[in-house]
Amino acid sequence: MAPPDIPAAKRAGLPVDIERLATEGDGWLTPEERYALKTYGVCAQEQEHVFMVRVRVPGGVLPTEQARAVARLGRRDGSDWLHLTTRQNLELHWVEDVRVPRLLADLQRAGLSTRSACGHTMRNVMSSEDAGVALDEPFDCLPDARAVSDALLARSAELNSSMPSRINIAFGGSPRCREDALINDAGFVSVVIDGEAGYELWAGGSLGKAPSLSVQLSPFVRRADVLAAAEALVDVFVAHGSFDTPAKGRMKFVVSALGPAVFRAAWDQAFAAARARPHPEPVAVGVLGAGDRVAILERIPTGGWSVGVRPQRTPGLASVTIDIPLGDTNASELNLIADLADRYGDGHLVLGRDQDVILRNVAVEAVEAIRAAIAPRGLTFLGEGHAARVRACTGSAVCALGVSAAPDAGRSLLSSAGLARNTSLRVHVSGCPNSCAQHQAGDVGLAGTKVRIGGRVRTGYHVFLGAALDEPRVGEVVGRVADEDVVAATDAIVGLWEALRRGHERLGDTVARIGHDAFAAHLEAVMADRWASGPEPDAVPAPAFTP
Ligand code: HEM
Ligand code: SF4
Mind listing the pLDDT tens digit for each residue in 390-410? Predict the structure, then answer.
């Protein structure tokens, strides 16, 4: 099918008769109507007559009754495969065209929305999974993330027809959230200045094919001005973005075209105008003190504290992270976790940025009961299964843009000896250069591509190393491998790092110190004709960009 004329579809107001799918299937959809469907969270798969349906979960916070509803609908319409994404969404796959309208209606009945979940829209607004409870989050940013999400989502019809591309927004104050702010179109980093809660505002970050890190727009936006700040950013985006060139549509291209200073001035002006409009008062949230660390830490759960069992600010309470390998789950697992959240947590699941599930407000005495309840399903708390921390997109098996089968590579990496010895390392596997798994941000990044190695063209990966977002630095290509050699290459990388690292030096820092070339030379020596250094020459075509 011909690619859609997205600007024309938007100018026409994105009309599409979703109900017609129920009676006639999807054969009648024009490419532009197919694009319009994405703005309702219904996205084409690689296969005909089936769709991926993406459910927004603002801030990742999912009440247990909604989790059970998604589980039931995923089993009914989505072949019982629920995929947790890195932006705290839930995806159902293999939804037959004729089932789409009823599924959307039932999701809506459960209080869930798929509106603006794909396409050039305001995507799910992320919030730190630890907001309001963890020691390094100064206050609860979830109400502000929700307010921005609700306000912009209510304008979907207007914004989806006028924004040049998607806009990804993230909230949170932990060091991890600070890194996320650098790779989102808008990052609100929670800070407290002179006792007042507010946000540093960053804008223009994204990875994709042309990675670019955010610039700071303001060192402090008051909570009362958060909606105005977000609206102003959207106004600048619409006014200056490349509406007619979607491949150059993201906010980062506006920042680089105007230059950070002019972009900032444009936002300042739009912000002043937006502040003059009335906005609801923010929900009251308390600024959290340092917490009584002695009281917090002397209450110990069975097994102690760890990356998967973390203390909350309230003595006696813990947050536990259930590791969901590659973010792939199903109805029976989700129902079990929902039951545990009701019994031992606070009646909510929190979908994390690493495609896992967090239960909060768990009494330390109950941690062991949760551990025991998930074990028969082969599930563990994060870090306890000694499994590698691998993140993968859905890849070419279902994604229409995919080149390589990212989940297959991800699964093979779960058996990597090097990663098993170093469970803090993160491997991010994207099935193509679009970077849905954010390969340039992982300790090891893999991006699906056709590779020519040993004289043969095969599917494989560009290998990225050197990332350290807090520096800030994104990973760069060191070379490429075929699908079947991903584990061998990763083990060689990890082995060299173990041999050369100084003290607790991170992989990205060792690569930066020793040099990408040295790592590439080592891989050439170890892998021989199963490795090629540097990026794939242009001779092998990259996938066409159809955002
Ligand atoms: C049908 C499946 C999907 C399609 C067609 C798709 C398409 C895309 C495209 C084209 C981009 C690049 C946008 C740009 O650079 O402007 C992108 C970015 C992104 N996608 Fe997906 N995606 C899919 C599934 C997923 C999944 C399963 C995840 C999470 C596991 C995900 C997470 C992301 C993220 C986080 C970005 C932002 C990357 C960045 O700019 O930093 N996507 N997606
Ligand atoms: S990275 Fe590529 S293959 Fe993976 S989901 Fe995104 S567009 Fe599809």
Answer: 999 999 999 999 999 999 999
Nearest alpha-carbon partner for 452 in 529, 545, 504, 355? 529
Taking the domain 136-275, which CATH number applies?
A: 3.30.413.10
What is the interface pTM, i.e. ipTM, of the complex? 0.95
* Per-domain boundaries in the chain: 6-109, 136-275, 293-381, 389-533
CATH code that applies to domain 389-533: 3.30.413.10
Q: C-alpha dihedral over 315, 175, 395, 110, to 10 degrees?
A: 50
On whether the CB atoms of residues 476 and 533 are closer than 8 A, the answer is: no
Q: Give tens-digit pLDDT for 136-162.
A: 889 999 999 999 999 999 999 999 999
Q: Which atom of ligand 1 is nearest to the CA of 546?
A: 10
Q: How far apart are CA 465 and CA 281, in angstroms?
A: 45
Cα distance between residue 254 and residue 250, in whole Å: 7
Percent of the chain with pLDDT over 70: 98
Architecture of domain 6-109: Alpha-Beta Complex (3.90)
Confidence of residue 540 (pLDDT cuts 50, 70, 90): very low
Give, using CA atoms, the residue closest to atom 20 of ligand 1.
436
Tell me which residues have their CB closer than 6 angstroms to ligand 1.
43, 52, 83, 85-87, 91, 165, 183, 206-208, 250, 393-394, 399-401, 434-438, 547
CATH no., domain 293-381: 3.90.480.20
